[in-house]
Amino acid sequence: MVGADGLVQPIPTRLEIDEDFVEQASKSGVPEARFRFGGRCVEGKCKQWTGNSCGVIEKVLTGMADQNIAPAENLPRCIIRGTCRWYSQRGADTCRACIYVVTDQSALVAHA
Predict the structure, then answer these.
(1) Which residue of 39, 64, 73, 105 could cross-link 69, Cys pair, CB 3.0 to 4.6 Å?
(2) DSSP code of 31?
(3) How far is CA 3 from each of CA 10, 27, 33, 72, 91, rounded to the nearest angstrom?
(4) pTM to 2 decimals?
(5) Distance between CA atoms of residues 19 and 54, nearest Å
(6) What's 39's DSSP letter?
(7) pLDDT digits over 32-80, tens only?
(8) Residue 58, burial from CB neighbour count under 10 angstroms (0-12, 13-18, 19+)
(9) Handedness of CA 48, 67, 85, 30 (dihedral sign)
(10) Using the 8-state DSSP alphabet, how is residue 34 labeled?
């Protein structure tokens, strides 16, 4: 979930998204403004696929370095690390950057 500080706070248990969840979450606005959803990597079927890796986390890590944003000090608790494309691609650095990745950036600007 996205906290008031704009950082992603991992939830302690895996949550399967269904129509009821979407309906309830939508009552308070766009769900992507408050949640970041993870799905199975589809590699070449995704427009973010660079040919051999996920371009999203590469952009995040480059952007953090360019803006001198320090990664989180400790690895956050994570229930998907064992199957996470980003973790398998770049290791612990991605876990420390993950808290900064929010799907709907426009919602953050609207609340700033």
Answers:
(1) 64
(2) G
(3) 10, 18, 10, 15, 24
(4) 0.72
(5) 28
(6) -
(7) 777 777 778 899 999 999 999 999 999 989 988 888 887 777 787 888 8
(8) middle
(9) negative
(10) T
Measured CA to CA, the distance from residue 102 to residue 99 in angstroms comes to 8
User: Which tokens belong to 7?
Assistant: 């950082």
Is 1:34 a contact under the CB 8 Å cutoff? yes
- CA–CA separation, 76 and 10 (whole Å): 7
Q: In whole angstroms, what is the distance from residue 51 CA to residue 44 CA?
A: 7
The DSSP call for residue 24 is H
Torsion of CA 1, 20, 32, 58, to 10 degrees: 80
Task: List pLDDT tens digits, range 18-38.
Answer: 899 889 888 988 887 777 777
User: pLDDT tier at 1 (50, 70, 90 boundaries)?
Assistant: confident
Paired residues of 54 in beta bridges: 49
Pick the closest to residue 111 from 54, 18, 28 (CA basis).
28
